[in-house]
């Protein structure tokens, strides 16, 4: 059986995307994928018959793509797992306090509602997704630790299926809910052993 050292301690400057103490490889993967996903989402929207974003809305779409699609990768990093699932360190501020509380961090992600309002999606479906996101994280946290990853995967698969069939957020936003659930439910809410580089 192969084992890897697990490291829960960290030090260094605060890194809200990659987690404090992220290695260069972790930063490259997180920021690189966030940039790539943003470029793909913006290009896909640009070449759609009817783009959802124009003018200042392009900047908002880019923000959502970077934050949500990029966050789906970043929240799986060992540095993020280490940062999210340890106690608050001296000197860490409100941002760290929010990030280390899965329910509060999820609650501030009103992204579906804002996206539906700005990009012409279904506001009713957006509110439903916001509520379902909160419930999904709550269910994951209510499970014993050994079941959390599987419960998070189940909730995420259901979200992927539902968002593509009977509860769409809106045209051009098909990526939004699956990426949000990967980021928040499968990534952020699940405590996993942070392996050392």
Radius of gyration: 17 Å
Q: Supply the number of helical segments.
A: 9
Give the overall shape, derived from the CA principal axes.
Answer: globular
Helix content: 55-70%
Order of helices and strands: HHHHHHHHH
| Whole-number mean pLDDT | 94
Q: How far apart are the termini?
A: 19 Å
Number of extended strands:
0
The quaternary organization reads as: single chain
Helices and strands: which structural class?
mainly alpha
List the uncertain runs. none
Strand content of the residues, in percent?
A: under 5%
Domains, number: 1
| Main beta-sheet strand count, sense and barrel state | none
Describe the protein.
- It contains nine helices and no strands.
- It has one domain (24-188).
- With 197 residues, it is mainly alpha-helical.
- The model has no long low-confidence stretch (mean pLDDT 94).
Q: Which properties best describe this structure?
A:
9 helices, globular
List the helices and strands and how they pair.
Elements: H1 24-46, H2 57-74, H3 78-84, H4 94-99, H5 102-107, H6 111-119, H7 123-142, H8 145-164, H9 176-188
Helix pairs in contact: 1-2, 2-9, 6-7, 7-8, 7-9, 8-9
At a glance:
The chain has 197 residues and is an all-alpha fold. The protein has one domain. Helix content is 62%, strand content 0%.
């Amino acid at each position: 059986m192969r084992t890897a050292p697990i490291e829960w301690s960290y030090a260094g400057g605060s890194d809200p995307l990659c987690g404090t103490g992220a290695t260069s490889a972790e930063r490259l993967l997180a920021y690189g994928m966030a940039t790539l996903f943003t470029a793909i989402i913006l290009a896909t929207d640009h070449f759609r018959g009817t783009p959802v974003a124009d003018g200042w809305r392009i900047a908002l779409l880019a923000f959502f793509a970077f934050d949500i699609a990029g966050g789906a990768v970043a929240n799986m990093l060992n540095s993020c797992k280490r940062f999210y699932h340890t106690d608050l360190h001296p000197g860490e501020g409100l941002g760290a306090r929010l990030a280390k509380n899965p329910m509060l961090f999820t609650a501030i992600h009103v992204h579906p509602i804002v996206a539906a309002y700005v990009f012409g999606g279904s506001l009713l479906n957006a509110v439903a997704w916001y509520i379902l996101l909160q419930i999904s994280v709550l269910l994951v946290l209510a499970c014993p630790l050994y079941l959390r990853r599987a419960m998070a995967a189940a909730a995420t698969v259901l979200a992927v299926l539902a968002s593509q069939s009977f509860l769409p957020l809106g045209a051009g936003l098909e990526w939004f809910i699956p990426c949000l659930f990967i980021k928040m439910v499968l990534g952020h809410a699940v405590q996993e052993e942070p392996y050392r580089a």
